[in-house]
Write a structure and sequence with these properties.
This is Immunoglobulin domain-containing protein. The chain is mostly beta strands. About 5% of the residues lie in helices and about 45% in strands. The protein is built from three helices and 29 strands.
């Protein structure tokens, strides 16, 4: 490959403006892709601004170049450039050349910008899972402070010179990454609120502030299980103050429902099932007939309904260090202490 585009057959130059985006931006610390769509049967070559040598190339499906060898960059088979970990140094103009078998070239220039000091306005996460509010701050920040709705004076958590502190951090319920992102260790419904983060940047007289609303998503794990002969639970995580929850067996056979504090339905009347105040289904004594698909319909406080499906299976393993519960038939095995 010639080291300078001037050595290429310039008489056949074709500037195809729809081959690459002319401007791309992505977040600091993330992986970014400069999308292109070349159908080159010879090679694609990426340059940094006025460099004479390509830092990464794709020739007949083979990747090479110092950018590829250092694992800083990658190139896709359609010629798109991948920046593995976006840093401020990647903010520049790139040049890409595509050659066909007759050395006819397509040349395009792309400006890449780094997005910094940014937080999304809304974030959501599943109840019971770990959650994160991912922010992207300039790497030379001095202090990141997070507040929740309980106090705008007492920080929930703070990161100052890589040192973490605050009531949320001390409780073990929150953490903060070195890039300033907030981590919620285990999402609960009380985490559905507005958070505020303040960043103090070295060399800047003003501070950067963002307000983020975190939403908690209700859900039922789609696969749950229990042991034969024992009480079983199909646990769901619904927001409190819902209007009604109804459980059905497969083929929509009505089973049990909870409306207000009233429980009704054939499953409740025959004393095989119950339902907790949070909407979870209770199987009073698990048998093989409970190995089935269940459907639950929730009507929330705003009369909006959502449906979830759960497959319930009987456990076949053993549990307990001293006593083992094994198999679908409810066999109890006792282990003697030696």
């Amino acid at each position: 490959m010639p080291s300078d585009e001037r050595k290429i057959n310039r008489s056949n130059l074709r500037a195809i403006n729809d081959m690459c985006s002319n401007h791309v931006n992505d977040y600091y610390g993330e992986e970014a892709i400069i999308d292109c769509c070349f159908q080159s049967d010879y090679g694609v070559y990426w340059y940094k601004e006025t460099d004479e040598e390509p830092f990464i190339r794709l020739e007949s499906g083979v990747k090479s170049g110092r950018g590829y060898d250092s694992n800083e960059y990658d190139v896709l088979q359609n010629g798109s450039l991948v920046i593995k970990n976006v840093q401020l140094k990647h903010e520049r103009e790139y040049k890409v050349i595509s050659l066909d078998s007759e050395l006819r070239d397509q040349i395009f220039r792309v400006t890449f910008s780094v997005v910094e000091n940014y937080c999304p306005s809304q974030v959501s996460g599943l109840y019971g899972e770990e959650g994160m509010i991912s922010c992207y701050f300039r790497p030379n920040f001095q202090t990141i402070i997070w507040f929740d709705e309980t106090s705008t004076r007492d920080p929930l958590i703070r990161l100052e010179h890589s040192t973490k502190s605050g009531r949320g951090y001390d409780s073990g319920k929150y953490d903060v990454l070195q890039n300033g992102s907030l981590v919620i260790k285990t999402i609960e419904f009380r985490n559905e609120q507005e958070y505020i983060t303040v960043a103090v940047i070295f060399g800047f007289t003003n501070i950067t502030e963002f307000s983020i609303v975190f939403f908690v998503i209700e859900h039922c794990p789609t696969q749950q299980s229990g042991f034969s002969g024992e009480k079983g639970n199909i646990i769901c995580h619904f927001k409190p103050n819902f209007n009604k929850v109804s459980w059905y067996l497969e083929q929509d056979k009505p089973l049990i429902q909870l409306e207000g504090s009233n429980i009704s339905g054939p499953g409740y009347e025959n004393e095989k099932y119950s339902v907790t105040q949070n909407g979870s289904l209770v199987i009073r004594r698990v048998t093989e007939e409970n190995e089935a698909h269940y459907r639950v319909i929730l009507i929330d406080a705003n009369n909006i309904s959502t449906a979830h499906r759960v497959e319930f299976k009987l456990e076949t393993g053993c549990w307990g260090s001293q006593y083992g519960y094994c198999g679908k038939k409810g066999i109890i095995k006792l282990r003697a202490r030696l």
